[in-house]
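Cross-check.
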Amino acid sequence: MEFEQIPFQKDIDDPALSPLERDIITELKSVYDPEIPVDIYELGLIYDIQYDKKTGQADIHMTLTAPGCPVAGVMPDWVKEAVERVDGVEHCEVHMEWDPPWRMDMMSLRAKIELNMI
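Predicted model, tokenized:
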């Protein structure tokens, strides 16, 4: 497969983003950890996105705020369903990553402001 690397923590309004990048990030931003009022993209839970133009497959590498997170069993399904709503994505596979472990400094400035951390 020929994967396209999608940059992370880019602002959704960045004109350098392709329409596909913007659409995938928009869908990722629709997924929330129910215990935190910030989307998973801004929380820094998305480590990598790859997209194969030939097959339409997206691979999402992500983590959780903690391995024992109560939604650990269902959040990958939420991410898969969200990304598969993007035109051009035929299939999405979500890979849970624990290295490096998530840290609060992985959050975007927007998330830190939303959570009154600044």
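The mean pLDDT is 89. The domain at 19-113 is CATH 3.30.300.130 (GMP Synthetase; Chain A, domain 3). Passed to J.P. for a second look.
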